Amino acid sequence: MKAAFRFLVVALMVAGLAAGLGCSSKQAASDVPPSATTDDDAKRRAEEEALRQRQLEEQRQREAAAIAAAKEEIGRMIHFDFDKYDLKPEARSILQAKAQVLKQYPNMRVVIEGHCDNRGTEEYNLALGERRANSAYEFLVLLGVPANRLSKVSYGESRPLDPANNEVAWAKNRRCEFKVAG
């Protein structure tokens, strides 16, 4: 009986010692003040939020630059020969680039403005400006741009780029302009 009692006492001491060691390691882990952990978490969260905000701002800037480049491409004019409304090869190339942009931005709408130089009557130049706008419009539609995203208007000779009366000015004024409408 004494042997069993001693065995029980020794077993309890070993168990108590083992429990004491376990507690000491837990206590070592909890030596860090709770506020330090909370401060580290708050700092980490603030850094993550700042990083997220920087990434969002960079993405916004990239998107704004892409839209500005798209509008610049859409804004490129095409020019025509005297009393003509057929598209020259360089005009077709410019319109193909516009079609690509319009396909990339399906919500973008464009107004095609037909213009003429000041030779000819006002009525004739209004009709010629309309035929020029129609040429660009039809070519864009053939390239797959939905017609409902395009509109056209003729200004005839009423909005010259260059008001001079010489061949250089007239060449500048025989054109189609493209305006982003939405």
Give a written overview of the molecule:
This protein has 182 residues and is α+β, with helices and mostly antiparallel strands. It has a domain at 77-181: 60s Ribosomal Protein L30, Chain: A, CATH 3.30.1330. It is 62% helix and 12% strand. It has a 4-stranded mixed sheet with strand order 1-4-2-3. Pfam families: OmpA (PF00691). One of its GO terms (biological process) is cell division.
What is the radius of gyration? 38 Å
CATH level-two architecture of the domain at 77-181: 2-Layer Sandwich
End-to-end C-alpha gap? 98 Å
Specify the biggest β-sheet: 4 strands, mixed
Mean pLDDT: 88
- Beta-strand portion reads 5-15%
Query: What's the SSE pattern?
Result: HHEHEHEHE
Number of strands: 4
User: What is the topology, as strand order, of the major beta sheet?
Assistant: 1-4-2-3
Residue stretches low in confidence (pLDDT < 50, at least 5 long) are none
Main CATH class of the domain at 77-181: Alpha Beta
The portion of residues assigned to helices is 55-70%
Global outline: elongated
What is the helix tally?
A: 5
Query: In the CATH hierarchy, what is the superfamily of the domain at 77-181?
Result: OmpA-like domain
The helix/strand class is alpha+beta
By CATH, the topology of the domain at 77-181 is 60s Ribosomal Protein L30, Chain: A
From the structure above, extract its key features.
182 residues; alpha+beta; 60s Ribosomal Protein L30, Chain: A; 4-stranded mixed β-sheet; 4 strands; 12% strand; cell division
